[in-house]
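Each lists sequence, tokenised fold; shown next:
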Amino acid sequence: MHQPVAGVKTPGKAALASWIGSAVEYYDFFIYGTAAALIFPKIFFSSANPHAAAIASFATFGVAYIARPFGAVILGHVGDKFGRKKVLTFTLLLMGFSTFIIGCLPTYDHVGILAPILLVVARLLQGISAAGEQAGANSMTLEHAPPHRRAFFSSFTLSGTQAGLILATLIFIPIARLPEADLLSWAWRIPFFLSLGVVIVGFWVRRSLPETPAFIEEAKRHETSKLPVLTLIQNHWADVVRIIFAALISVVSTIFSVFTLSYAVNTMHIDRSTMLTVLVLANIVALGAIPLWASLADRIGRKPVFIFGALGCAVLIWPYIWAISQGNIPLIFALGILLSGVIYSASNGVWPALYGEMFDTRVRLSGMAIGTQIGFALGGFAPTISAALLGEGPDGWIPVAAFTSVTAIIAAISAATALETYRTPMHDLGRKPIEIAA
């Protein structure tokens, strides 16, 4: 069993450091999604075909997810061989640099086709950073956590991502209220420039974050894998595939935060500030719901909580998009908060423990990073797919709701095939029954 290591902070302090770092990291990531829905189609692409510009803008949002599996392999190797802390420092600095650069880019009117090309390059760098961030932070908190509260403490990483989305959206609300000429000429750059300040805060918090007891013990025993990815493929390929399909639950998040925002504002002409407020309120509710669902998972298991959240999202996405198509503001608020703030939080708060407990310490970061990032790739392109699926007329949203439901159901089925690990000791996680008996 992993014993406490001298100098290691308490689980609460480690979780707080991961929370703050994830909030900073995903502030940068989410401001891009908001800008891709509301602003980038108008300034980084030709205005000749607005619908094509919207699809192209969503594609630049999704392109980061192409880089994420490659980043997961590289950063997973570093994290499992040299430690979680090195990965977390690198991802934070890379995300801050690439986000600041986006705020400096020239637009289509100034440099033509070069503008979206530069945007894609910066977005790819964001994707590489995000590939190692969540898996690194999840491994850090999971391996610091007390045996019977691993879901609760590892959920703080996901609470941090919600806080990052809240911060990004709150900054965009007053900017979105500016006259469109100001918004498109200079104001859109402000959230990207502000990333420099929040990255400095995050780096200051993470610089004193200790390595995990589990990794230190592996290193002392010289049991860290020389090639973690090869070990992962040899011993845990089925769990990686399982995570890929379970991670399709992320489609719900990107449809809610990116596609429906664009659909409501650009197609149904609902006020930008109204929809951004829905996002903020839903994520404020999620801040409280995520640790509550995770605490429940520490009592009854990870699988039932995750599956409930996935199937609930498969149902609720239909009335939510319908409410947007009807322009029913009170119903949009109620269903949006219920869908994203409450039900989606069940799956979102539990997956760090569910996925992380499938692996042993030697390959945990690689397994989570590679599995989730391949699965998240579809989530990243979900707004692009949905923009293409969106039909004409009042029922044009139905294919989008069907697509979202199918992915959520697949995620639930995949999670149902996993082992239940909420009572498994840390040193037995990811090991075959014969290894545990020995």
